[in-house]
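Hi V.,

Quick status before I head out on leave. The structure for the redesign project is tokenized and pasted below; the design run finished overnight.
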């Protein structure tokens, strides 16, 4: 009789687990699996990486005997290394149907202890000002709050993939902050006497949100139903409300302080058309920057190097060069690296070390040494990978260039007047090209194509030119 009862409990548990996993994944794309196990030959814990594309595959992993078994939160496009190992990267992410907030504890949590903690959270209305999880699992060393989405966010190979990633990460960070604030408030307000009636107050007050999770598309979590060998506890589902599912955009607008009630996401996330409009607005805003006014970056950076040499001479004469020498060397290295980065032809490329040596000679001392120059080049190459565009305004701020210094260095000017002059000059050049073509007898359509303007604009210009000819 006892045996039948245990079998029934196991069947119910497996049924609940199957329903839960079906809620997390639609299995259109595989799930990345990582297994840690002890290898007797190597005498250490090693890892296996592969994909599974069905619930049976997940159950097979759950029931296997390993030190730890993890699954990816996001479903993946299958990609493999040269050695045939499955890969888990942001680039091969197919879609995300949920995210997880990790609650850590200093103490191992048994099923009974974890249930008491969850009951306290529910009874004290901890989820009044943050969304109620779809599910809560006990991991052995803490709790996982699962938030399932009504509609999956498909990253795939969409042109808006980067935008979708930012929205997903924003939602995760927004809810993580909301949970953290509510948990902190609960721990501060709840009395030790009340807690001691249920569990040791030290256990409850050791709970904290894991801040290292920031909505990464590579996140791995312990598979529910598996065994946590480090904590000697089963990973169990203790709370499940399948109706608690959310639209990603609504989570952001409701719980993120940045958005007001008037700002509404349509459907799941901001529509692609709206994203395109925002992109164009951002691009137009960036055009105000001197860097983005169709100036060849090679020419621009060569001008900046001339300006940096003037700055060195100025500060040397004024006796205030010391303290900014290292920054000047770094900026010079960035400009030289950026010249090679934007060079269209091999002959435009330069020797960064040799050119930087010239700057170092002007400053003198250790700044002209080969080892120092090499170290600065390596440092700025790493920086350049993350930031390959800098405005003159940013450079002036970084080098702490004052107004009286800037007057003598027009190569680093960023005033509105300079921008207007550049725009006016560019327009005059285009108009002159169009005039020359018109004088040669080219059609208005061909002129428009050649100079990159609309036929309407060319028509207006031609009208002005004809009037001028008549008046002459």
């Amino acid at each position: 009789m006892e045996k039948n009862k245990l079998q029934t409990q196991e069947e119910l548990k497996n049924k609940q687990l199957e329903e839960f996993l079906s809620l997390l994944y639609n299995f259109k794309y595989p799930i990345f699996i990582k297994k840690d196990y002890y290898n007797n030959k190597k005498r250490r814990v090693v890892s296996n990486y592969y994909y599974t594309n069905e619930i049976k595959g997940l159950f097979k992993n759950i029931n296997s005997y390993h030190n730890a078994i993890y699954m990816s939160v996001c479903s993946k496009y299958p990609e493999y290394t040269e050695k045939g190992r499955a890969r888990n990267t942001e680039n091969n992410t197919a879609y995300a149907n949920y995210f997880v907030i990790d609650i850590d504890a200093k103490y191992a949590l048994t099923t009974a202890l974890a249930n008491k903690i969850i009951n306290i959270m529910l009874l004290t209305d901890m989820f009044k000002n943050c969304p109620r999880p779809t599910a809560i699992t006990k991991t052995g060393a803490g709790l996982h709050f699962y938030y399932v989405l009504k509609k999956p966010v498909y990253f795939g190979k969409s042109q808006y993939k980067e935008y979708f990633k930012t929205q997903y990460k924003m939602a995760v960070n927004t809810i993580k902050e909301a949970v953290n604030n509510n948990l902190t408030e609960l721990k501060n307000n709840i009395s030790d006497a009340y807690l001691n009636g249920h569990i040791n107050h030290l256990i409850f007050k050791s709970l904290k949100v894991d801040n290292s999770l920031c909505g990464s598309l590579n996140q791995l979590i312990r598979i529910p139903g598996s065994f946590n060998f480090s904590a000697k506890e089963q990973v169990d589902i203790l709370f499940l409300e399948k109706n608690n599912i959310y639209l990603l955009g609504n989570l952001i607008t409701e719980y993120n302080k940045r958005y007001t009630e008037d700002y509404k996401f349509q459907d799941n996330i901001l529509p692609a058309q709206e994203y395109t409009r925002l992109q164009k607005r951002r691009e137009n805003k960036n055009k105000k920057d001197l860097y983005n006014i169709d100036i060849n970056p090679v020419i621009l950076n060569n001008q900046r190097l001339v300006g940096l040499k003037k700055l060195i001479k100025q500060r040397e004469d004024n006796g205030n060069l010391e303290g900014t020498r290292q920054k000047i060397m770094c900026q010079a290295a960035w400009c030289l690296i950026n010249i090679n980065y934007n060079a269209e032809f091999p002959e435009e490329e330069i020797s960064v070390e040799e050119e930087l040596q010239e700057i170092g000679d002007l400053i003198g001392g250790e700044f002209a040494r080969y080892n120092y120059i090499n170290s600065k080049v390596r440092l700025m190459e790493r920086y350049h990978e993350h930031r390959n565009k800098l405005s003159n305004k940013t450079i002036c701020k970084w080098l702490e260039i004052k107004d009286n210094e800037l007057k003598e260095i027009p190569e680093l000017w960023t005033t509105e007047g300079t921008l207007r002059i550049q725009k006016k000059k560019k327009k005059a050049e285009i108009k002159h090209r169009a005039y020359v073509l018109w004088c040669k007898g080219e059609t208005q359509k061909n002129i428009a194509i050649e100079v990159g303007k609309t036929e309407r604009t060319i028509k207006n210009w031609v009208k002005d030119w004809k009037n001028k000819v008549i008046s002459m």
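Above is the designed sequence. The longest strand covers residues 142-154.

G. will cover questions while I'm gone.

Best,
W.
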